[in-house]
PurE domain-containing protein
Amino acid sequence: MDKKQLQTLLEQVANGGVKPEEALLQIKTEPYKDMGFAKLDTHRGIRQGMAEVIYGAGKTKEQILKIAQAMLTEQEKTVLITRMSQEAADYVKQYLDLKYDEMSRTGRIGKIPTPDGAGKIVIATGGTSDMPVAEEAALTAEIYGNEVIRLYDVGVAGMHRLMDHVEEIMSARVIVAIAGMEGALASVIGGMADCPVIAVPTSVGYGANFGGLSALLSMLNSCASGISVVNIDNGFGAGYLASMINHLDSKKN
């Protein structure tokens, strides 16, 4: 149950549509469910507005399945699994209706909700090689109820490609700029847009790019204002943060 669902439930109690004892049964869950190998945070959706996400790397396929099943038992409408292997995806598919994106290694159980964010989130990449990280960000944002526009392979090596999308950039509520090499894309977009820009350095690059460290340092040292930076290849973190920004207006209501 997330914050919106809880508010709706309480309003139904207030207007007599739901009995208090019925509502109590729906929200009377422990703060977390101890599964032995994991402690499922069942109240994260209420606290933060977004349910817990399963980080698949390092978990066995059996653990991933059990956590996903427990989340569905707790009435989670959509379960997101990041960094999920093909082997784990094939295993979980035997038991649950899993949709798996091989490029981003992202799994989803349940429907993608209707977008309810205040605006559009633009996901832009410097090159095609950055797409796995970009898709992780894009799918994360979509699963959390956002309309996403993808602008792929619009890096600074060919500025005309980016300039063909000025309208999308200028009308975005949040932009996620994803690039490897020297990471210049974030600075260029940051100098064009009037909205927050989330920079994501990737490990794409030749020789001494140090696994993405060169792009990370460039983005941290950007002279453009309004840029925040997440860790190397952290598409999920960027998509999550972009969704939070895009839903800030809903907190005022």
